[in-house]
Amino acid sequence: MVRRVGILGGTFDPVHIGHLRGALEVAELFALDEVRLVPSARPPHRERPQVSADDRLAMVRCAVEGVPPLTVDDRELHRERPSYTIDTLESLRSELAADDQLFLVLGWDAFCGLPSWHRWEELLLHCHLLVLQRPDADVEAPDALRNLLAARSVSDPQALCGPGGQIAFVWQTPLEISATQLRERLAQGRSIRFLVPDAVLAYIQAHGLYPASP
Ligand code: ATP
């Protein structure tokens, strides 16, 4: 049996319903056996996360608890060097059969930033890319991605075949929400209820994360 595994990497500072709906909708659409949420330890492209890796991991664990096929993969948190997606893909690939399908799920914003990723041109050797359309994203793909899109994108996502190498675009239920907005709300002492699962909110409150600014 060919396994179909999705991966959604992120800082998850904190995890929210935009991430979770994206993961779940992709899982349904592509009949994935599993979608792994992979928290990054030291994201190469951005500022230090506001809360620790342990807390971000714990929040993702709370969020996916009892929600198959969503799972958590903490391999990036055990690495000394920055969290490069290519390393994660190579390590996952070494655990899968050669014809198993791997789907890297990215929001549109993350996809547009691809040309700055470490060894980005090798990503498609290991997986397909599923790009989530995100309502708050800028529209145009950067020039550096034009050739790749022309060569690798498929118009019918269901036509993706083989272990990897193609790009498909997926419309998820639009949720104009980002972790940045949530951190801002919390800093202002406002509620983020219903924007994150209740279990995540309870974890934030119990551990005094993201305190309101004085
Ligand atoms: P921040 O605001 O801190 O940058 P974020 O909400 O964008 O965080 P990340 O952890 O950086 O979350 O994102 C992980 C992945 O999830 C990225 O590929 C991102 O594009 C995608 N993503 C985040 N929010 C949404 C959303 N509302 N809808 C679709 N995809 C999303």
Question: Concise description?
Answer:
This protein is 32% helix and 15% strand. With 214 residues, the protein is of the alpha/beta class.
CA distance, first residue to last residue: 56 Å
Q: Would you tell me the overall average pLDDT? A: 92
Fill in the CATH topology: Rossmann fold
Largest sheet: 6 strands, parallel
- Count of separate DSSP helical elements: 8
CATH class: Alpha Beta
Using only C-alpha atoms, the radius of gyration works out to 17 Å
Ligand identities: adenosine-5'-triphosphate
Task: Indicate the structural class.
Answer: alpha/beta
Helix content: 25-40%
CATH homologous superfamily label: HUPs
Across the major sheet, the strand order is: 3-2-1-4-5-6
Give the helices and strands as they follow along the chain: EHEHEHEHHEHEHH
Shape: globular
Task: Let me know the number of strands.
Answer: 6
Q: Which spans of ≥5 residues are poorly predicted at pLDDT below 50?
A: none
- Strand % is 5-15%
Overall tally of domains: 1
User: Which architecture name does CATH use?
Assistant: 3-Layer(aba) Sandwich
Enzyme class: transferase
EC number: 2.7.7.18
Function: Catalyzes the reversible adenylation of nicotinate mononucleotide (NaMN) to nicotinic acid adenine dinucleotide (NaAD).
InterPro entries: Cyt_trans-like, NadD/NMNAT, Rossmann-like_a/b/a_fold
